[in-house]
Amino acid sequence: GENVEQHPSTLSVQEGDSAVIKCTYSDSASNYFPWYKQELGKGPQLIIDIRSNVGEKKDQRIAVTLNKTAKHFSLHITETQPEDSAVYFCAASIRGYSTLTFGKGTMLLVSP
Amino acid sequence: EAQVTQNPRYLITVTGKKLTVTCSQNMNHEYMSWYRQDPGLGLRQIYYSMNVEVTDKGDVPEGYKVSRKEKRNFPLILESPSPNQTSLYFCASSKAGEAEAFFGQGTRLTVV
User: Fold this and answer.
1) Residue A36 to residue A86: CA distance in whole angstroms
2) How far apart are the CA of A73 and the nearest CA of chain B, in angstroms?
3) What pLDDT does B97 receive?
4) B90 close contact with A: CB closer than 8 A
5) In which band, very low, low, confident or very high, does the pLDDT at A54 lie, cut at 50, 70 and 90?
6) Inter-chain residue contact A34 with B99, CB threshold 8 Å
């Protein structure tokens, strides 16, 4: 089955800096890669996703890049703000099969 | 409001006492699943259901049961809870063929 590795497990940055979280996956058939943000006491919420026919996707301060050859994808957050502090999960799935395999998560701390 | 609702949010129980965590979604999604979240292990899938009366094991199904008698409900049953089932549980739903998952708020279960 699919295996998703996520690094780093914790990431501390100063407000205004950029943050990068990286994930690798094992199943070359995976073609959908979402990122979820989990705030304290809440369930994970989708923040951005990318499909295998696209190399990069941006949404305001967040972007995701995908390298299918190397089987890795990354989340980039620019101009970080304290409210970006949360746990971020990457995931991989074969679209249409509705099964997500998650990475272990990254706790992002943004200091004012 | 589109949502996935879990109950209860918090539960403390004793070893061996059967319990049920309910999950309901109002988005007419075909696909529902249960995850457990443990520190350092991320989100691991327990069971999933592709539609009414169709369920299958995820990565960590031991000690759990599920049923899907109605499209909107997907309860998680612990017939004889043990302390190693102390965890944070999430229910999620998604539309058939779409991998985007919508999560509930979580149920924190403690088994003593």
Assistant:
1) 10
2) 17
3) 74
4) yes
5) confident
6) yes
**Spatial contact of A23 and A39, defined as CB atoms under 8 Å apart:** no
Structure tokens at B71: 């499209």
pLDDT of residue B33: 94
Name the nearest CA neighbour of A35 among A16, A15, A11, A51. A51
Mean pLDDT of all residues belonging to chain A? 93
Q: Are B21 and B8 in contact (CB under 8 A)?
A: yes
Residue in A98, A104, A106 to test binding to B, most B beta-carbons within 10 Å: A98
Question: What residue type is assigned to position B9 of the chain?
Answer: R
Q: What does residue B49 show for φ and ψ, rounded to 5 degrees?
A: -140, 125
pLDDT of residue A52: 83
Q: Alpha carbon of A72 to those of A2, A64, B12: distances in Å?
A: 13, 11, 40
Does residue B29 surpass a pLDDT of 90? yes
Which tokens sit at B10? 């918090």
Q: Does residue A3 sit at the B interface (CB-CB below 8 Å)?
A: no
Q: What is the mean pLDDT of residues A67-91?
A: 96
- Look at the block and give the residue holding tokens 């302390």: B83
Interface probe, candidates A4, A5, A99, A101, chain B, greatest B C-beta count within 10 A: A99
Can you say whether the dihedral through the CA atoms of B57, A95, B69, B89 is positive or negative?
A: positive
